[in-house]
Amino acid sequence: MRSINRPSRITTRYIQPGDLDMSAVDMPGYIGWRRTSSGIQLETSGMLIEDGVQAVKSVYPQARVYSDGGDAFLDRDDPRNKARQRVQDTPELQQYRDVIFADWPEGDEHLQWIASAPLAEIVSWASEIAEATQNEHDATGVDPSRAV
């Protein structure tokens, strides 16, 4: 069983070229974006950043995606993409999407686990996290996913 840790970091992706018309992109409201010298910077907490990447790629399939200012091009073999595809293709995991793609301290190791672990193990872990989060919310009245 995986441990219960809290995600904490902001996740950033850079899209190039940086002169894309972003008004044509149906960007999810929880994804922030701005133009920088490294391209278009997308930003949110956790691994939900991939939703922003997919929004851009749906309009601009030729866009290149980087994990930082341009050094690390992301491709289909990236653990984030494999994990995202598995969740997208597995109905039992879709309800736990926010838990699965939170910014876990294990990083790529967590995503590799999501991409390859037995389904029952992932569901058990994710439901435990979801229940613990709900219990914390019920006890404190503060949504832990929104805590700063």
Any low-confidence stretches, pLDDT <50, length ≥5? Answer: 1-8, 69-73
**Helix/strand-derived class?**
alpha+beta
Mean pLDDT: 79
Give Rg in angstroms. Answer: 16 Å
For the largest beta-sheet, the strand count, sense and barrel status come to: 4 strands, antiparallel
- Count of separate structural domains: 2
Main sheet strand line-up:
2-3-1-4
User: Helical element count?
Assistant: 6
Distance between the termini: 27 Å
Name the shape in a single word: globular
Describe this structure in words.
The protein is an alpha+beta fold. The model is unreliable at 1-8 and 69-73 (pLDDT under 50). The chain is globular. 22% of the residues are buried. The protein has a four-stranded antiparallel β-sheet with strand order 2-3-1-4, covered by helices on one side. The two termini are 27 Å apart. Helix 2 packs parallel to helix 5. The protein folds into two domains: 10-66; 79-140, no CATH class. The chain has six helices and four strands, in the order βββαβααααα.
Topology:
Elements: E1 10-16, E2 32-36, E3 39-45, H1 49-59, E4 64-66, H2 79-89, H3 91-94, H4 97-100, H5 108-116, H6 119-140
Antiparallel strand pairs: 1-3, 1-4, 2-3
Helix pairs in contact: 2-5
Notable characteristics:
alpha+beta, 148 residues, single chain, 6 helices, disordered N terminus, 2 domains, four-stranded antiparallel beta sheet
In brief:
The chain has helices at 49-59, 79-89, 91-94, 97-100, 108-116, 119-140; strands spanning 10-16, 32-36, 39-45, 64-66.
